[in-house]
Amino acid sequence: MKPIIAAALLAGSLVFAAAAPAKERAERPLTADSKALFDDQAAAIRQQMQSGGRYEFVSEAERADVERGLQRIAAVLGRHADAQAFSDGDKAELLQAQENVNAVLTRNDGRRLVCVRERPTGSHLGKDKCQTYAEIERARRSSETEVRRLQMKSPGPSGLPNQADLRRSGGN
How many CB atoms lie within 10 A of CB 42? Predict the structure, then answer.
């Protein structure tokens, strides 16, 4: 009798395990499995780093890091026709470059959802506010531009004319 119960429990647990949703993995922008696949991914990444792309908020320094990583990956993949022929050193170099590129792109992904818990004034209850990284970055840049515009209009703290007034009057 006990073996039948144990078998039933095992079968039931397997059914529930199969029905449970698989753990979602974060999408990786770059998976350098083969030279042909890598070339397509590298071209797509370079295009998405342009203005209006998914990774448009990558800074110039990070853009240079991504480009160096893509070149390292291309060099490693160019040395081998088959993934089975990789030496341990080449595998390590490939994985390190991939991880560096993926880290930069994931951090600057315009579709990444960022949630912050805020407490409205006068309330003890927090409220979640979620925005994409692109929305946050565009708002930040818009604020910086507006602050610069207002600083150009207002007189300086000493009461002297601001830069815009000096330009209009010829600098004197």
Answer: 20
3-state DSSP call for residue 155?
coil
Residue pair 107/49 in contact by the 8 Å Cβ criterion: no
- Is 90 in contact with 76 (CB distance < 8 Å)? yes
Residue 36 pLDDT:
81
Please, are residues 45 and 67 in contact by the beta-carbon 8 Å criterion? no
Q: What is the pTM of this model?
A: 0.66
E strand or H helix at 132, and its extent? strand 127-132
Residues 6 or more apart from 165 whose CB is under 8 A from it? 155
SS3 of 83-94:
HHHCCHHHHHHH
